[in-house]
Amino acid sequence: MTTRRSIPFGLMLQGAGSHMNAWRHPSNPPDASINLDFAIGIARKAEAAGITFAFVADGLYINEKSIPHFLNRFEPLTVLSALAVATKKIGLAGTISTSYSEPFTVARQLASLDAISGGRAGWNVVTTPLEGTAKNFGKAHPDHELRYEIADEYLDVVQGLWDSWDDDAFVRDRATGRFFDRDKLHTLDHHGRFFQVAGPLNIQRSPQGQPVIFQAGSSDTGIGLAGKYADAVFTHSPSLDETAAFTRRVKQSAIEHGRQAGDVKIFPGVGPIVGRTAAEAEDKYQAIRNLLTIDEALAYLGRYFDHHDFTQYALDAPFPELGELGRNSFRSTTDRIKADAKQKGLSLRETALAVATPRPNFIGTAEHVADELIRWHDAGAGDGFILGFPVQAQGVDDFVELVIPVLEARGRYSRDLPGATLRDHLGLPRKASRHAAPGASQEPAAEAHA
Amino acid sequence: MTTRRSIPFGLMLQGAGSHMNAWRHPSNPPDASINLDFAIGIARKAEAAGITFAFVADGLYINEKSIPHFLNRFEPLTVLSALAVATKKIGLAGTISTSYSEPFTVARQLASLDAISGGRAGWNVVTTPLEGTAKNFGKAHPDHELRYEIADEYLDVVQGLWDSWDDDAFVRDRATGRFFDRDKLHTLDHHGRFFQVAGPLNIQRSPQGQPVIFQAGSSDTGIGLAGKYADAVFTHSPSLDETAAFTRRVKQSAIEHGRQAGDVKIFPGVGPIVGRTAAEAEDKYQAIRNLLTIDEALAYLGRYFDHHDFTQYALDAPFPELGELGRNSFRSTTDRIKADAKQKGLSLRETALAVATPRPNFIGTAEHVADELIRWHDAGAGDGFILGFPVQAQGVDDFVELVIPVLEARGRYSRDLPGATLRDHLGLPRKASRHAAPGASQEPAAEAHA
Ligand SMILES: Cc1cc2nc3c(=O)[nH]c(=O)nc-3n(C[C@H](O)[C@H](O)[C@H](O)COP(=O)(O)O)c2cc1C
Ligand SMILES: Cc1cc2nc3c(=O)[nH]c(=O)nc-3n(C[C@H](O)[C@H](O)[C@H](O)COP(=O)(O)O)c2cc1C
Question: Which of chain B's residues have a Cβ under 8 Å away from the Cβ of A193?
Fold first, then answer.
């Protein structure tokens, strides 16, 4: 691997954008979160620009305090299946919770998306932070650690189901009437602590061997799960140093699980704001910040802390002491918010605004943003980035029109995706079956973009 | 309602066709069950011909004895979401089991499909006959009656979730920052015998009010469920008289549940085989019958009876006595098979062939088939038909090219779908919300095709 390599980008598809009030921004359609034409337009623009995958976050519980985007949005598998037909090459990754779904169903739906898209499916494995979710599924919300134990077994089951059929199991010989080769069928027969799943799966093996596993928990336990199973990790990007340290930790975890550092690709989420001048970028940021009142910012902050009511505290006093609040939900996020507030001596107001409408790490001219992305990348802060723009329409346009040309001029970006599958785009080899002879069918990675 | 009205047709999308060895027929691609281009081609041809909906059956358990089509096929929601983009008007109905899924997830996925397709989603509610399914979900297979009790509560929950938001709940007022109207949000808060579901659903109300409910169980209990909830029923079509009697029973059940006979549309499944002459149609049938050996026919029959091994009986002796076998699975089907064998004095061989490769009720020239369909329709044997061709490619081509023109000439078919949603296509009014003022928002049916 040379250091002067192409940087792969994924793109969050999240309606109007990551900012809670992005729907109010004039560059977006206000119904963006439920507007298929908008989603298709964004995905096609991204694909034409060589973005390697679209990424759909998700949640399974809302109440009237939820942010607008969460109240009314597409379900990931359905919208990604629609995008599979509306696009040709871009990867299609969606979030599904291992705490509130069935492995047989999820294995199958992802395998079906993979078949439909010709090998472009990815799954962002989450354990579901939001405690209220349990109320939609008639059961108790498992604790943070238990959720990860469930996820571990769940992934083992799903990957086992995905290997139910060898790649060449379906012979379909019309003359003899032989449809499949019995020796190439593997019935899972899983009996575990949380799941009993007989199998086999009722769909062929994936064009990419198996769909790509993304993982998005950042706690120690989350990193352990990523090291064991993940092909790619979606993470926060608080600073270059922290992101580089996180990257090393995940790769170290992969090595401890008998894998190689390059087997798991780290994608910090970034939301660049770009202007033709630095001042124009600042103006864009201020326009975004002004979409929000302080009360909305407090409510947004409260979401991470079990909808804690922050209006009870003085706005300009130091960030309050919260004990264990939120630690069973978004643990890595709440720990970081608390640590930041303490370290930088932030008030509640400053913390709420920093969380609800953060000043991005990447803001300024296209040259500045491109150079910063290259600097992070070369310093080992991730293998690529997931773009999560505060305001989707403006963010995508600016990135594609302004930043990508600079990255190209620097020799650090290519619009051509060399392969056909998401694994190809990520520079990952086709996934070998657990039933294959050791080393036999793990093909080398295609000439990689990543 | 006049008697000389247009007859609506749905079309089963089942890969190579309903015949277990349809993949061997030269008119089909052998991988039809997992071939997206084939599915899109068929759906577009059907749409252009004015077929009102595509219909995807499903199952959640296979083993090496399963018929080829079931071993390797798309999952319904994903393929229907893909078809939503590949087509413009045709309805998109898929099968999902109430015994092996979560109402919150299913309500949401169907609502998302409905949003993506502009109001074309339908759900074929099944309770899952196949006992082995339990082995993929780590629980016991509920009994026939219990399955229907679960289904009843499940449908109540799903329909409640679909009414979480009033049609005009999302105001999205950029000036004031008001995204939704709190008075138009309804949190379900369901506490029942089988399900605890808080809600609300995280997606807007359906373009058609609610997705269309199909139901496909034919036992007394199944008919009761249909009478209470179904907008449409998919059923067998053993004979005109039996189908007409079944149609009356379902409509009677609807009336007993305080609905009207026209609120539930009955769709018998038919698989016409058409030739330019009667002899050509017979030849086509023989070619289809020859796709199958007697051993394959016995195995196919066994599927309905918990994979009972029928090779243990003499082939030409009368159909054996089976007691309760299969009655916890495909009850209405197994009862019918047993009754038929007894009544017609069939041997095991004859029964197996009649089940595995049945001579269709509709076979002959286009004129004959069209006239028979009209005769059934006018005699009250259903409100339309679901086409389930033994061999898909040949069946669709022959029906579209040969039969539809005759139906048109008879004034009993129109290629133009007058409305935009599946409810429009079925001649059903937009579904009113349970929170609407009585009679307020139930709009009259569009000028109906059905
Ligand atoms: C960058 C990032 C993205 C995430 N995306 C989602 C998501 O889309 N849906 C979800 O339910 N949880 C999401 N999570 C939550 C995680 O799955 C996990 O449940 C939570 O972060 C707690 O685990 P942790 O303490 O290991 O981070 C995300 C977490 C991170 C760090
Ligand atoms: C015409 C028809 C089509 C059916 N389609 C399916 C299907 O696609 N998937 C499934 O699991 N069950 C299907 N079923 C099974 C029913 O949902 C039900 O579980 C079974 O028929 C037993 O109920 P019953 O005795 O009321 O018919 C179908 C049944 C009929 C009669």
Answer: none
Residue nearest to atom 22 of ligand 1 (CA): A330
| Interface confidence: ipTM more than 0.85 | yes
Q: In chain A, which residue's Cα lies nearest the Cα of B113? A: A78
A133: pLDDT strictly greater than 90: yes
**Confidence (pLDDT) at A243:** 97
For the cut 60, the answer to whether the pLDDT of residue A346 exceeds it is yes
Put simply, whether B328 touches A (Cβ < 8 Å) is no
Out of B36, B108, B137, name the one closest to residue A104 (CB).
Answer: B137
- pTM given for the model: 0.94
B104, A132 Cβ separation under 8 angstroms: no
Return the residue of B nearest to A197 by Cα. Answer: B136
**Is the CB of residue A133 less than 8 Å away from at least one CB of chain B?**
no
Lookup result for tokens 């359609």: A29
Residues of B in contact with A138 (CB under 8 A): 195-197
Q: Each residue of B223-254: b (16+ CB within 10 Å) or e?
A: bbbbbbbbbbbbbbbeebeebbebbebbbebb
Cβ atoms of B37 and A116 closer than 8 Å:
no
How close A165 gets to chain B, by Cα (Å)?
10
Closest-CA residue, ligand 1 atom 16, reads A217
The number of C-beta contacts closer than 8 angstroms across A and B is: 190
Average pLDDT over residues A160-169: 98
Q: Is B105 touching A (CB cutoff 8 A)? A: yes
The 8-class DSSP code of residue B237 comes to: -
Is residue A450 predicted with pLDDT exceeding 90? no
Residue with tokens 């910040």: A289
Least confident residue range of A172-186, A250-264, B433-447:
B433-447
Q: Which atom of ligand 2 is nearest to the CA of B57?
A: 8
**3-state DSSP of chain A:** CCCCCCCCEEEECCCCCCCCCHHHCCCCCCCHHHCHHHHHHHHHHHHHCCCCEEEECCCCCCCCCCCHHHHCCCCHHHHHHHHHHHCCCCEEEEEEECCCCCHHHHHHHHHHHHHHHCCCEEEEEECCCCHHHHHHCCCCCCCHHHHHHHHHHHHHHHHHHHCCECCCCEEEECCCCEEECHHHECCCCEECCCCEECCCCCCCCECCECCEEEECCCCHHHHHHHHHHCCEEEECCCCHHHHHHHHHHHHHHHHHCCCCHHHCEEEEEECCEEECCHHHHHHHHHHHHCCCCHHHHHHHHHHHCCCCCHHHCCCCCECCCCCCCCCCCCHHHHHHHHHHHHHHCCEHHHHHHHHHCCCCCCEEEHHHHHHHHHHHHHCCCCCCEEECCCCHHHHHHHHHHHHHHHHHHCCCCCCCCCCCCHHHHHCCCCCCCCCCCCCCCCCCCCCCCC
Q: Do B63 and A137 touch (CB under 8 A)?
A: no
* Residue A449 confidence (pLDDT) above 90: no
pLDDT for the residue B444: 46
Residue minimizing CA distance to atom 23 of ligand 2? B217
- pLDDT confidence of residue A445: 47
Separation between Cα atoms, residue A291 and residue B174, nearest integer Å:
9
- Hey, of B72, B106, B165, B182, which one would you mutate to test binding to chain A, going by the most A CBs within 10 A of its CB? B72
**A235 close to ligand 1 (CB < 6 Angstrom):** yes
CA B54 – ligand 1 centroid, Å: 37
Q: Which CATH number fits domain A9-276+360-448: 3.30.565.10, 3.90.550.10, 3.20.20.30, 3.60.15.10?
A: 3.20.20.30
Q: Give the model confidence (pLDDT) of B349-362 as tens digits.
A: 999 999 999 999 99
Name the residue type at position B85. Answer: V
Is the predicted pLDDT of residue B60 greater than 60, yes or no? yes
For chain B, give every domain's residue range. 9-276+360-448, 292-356
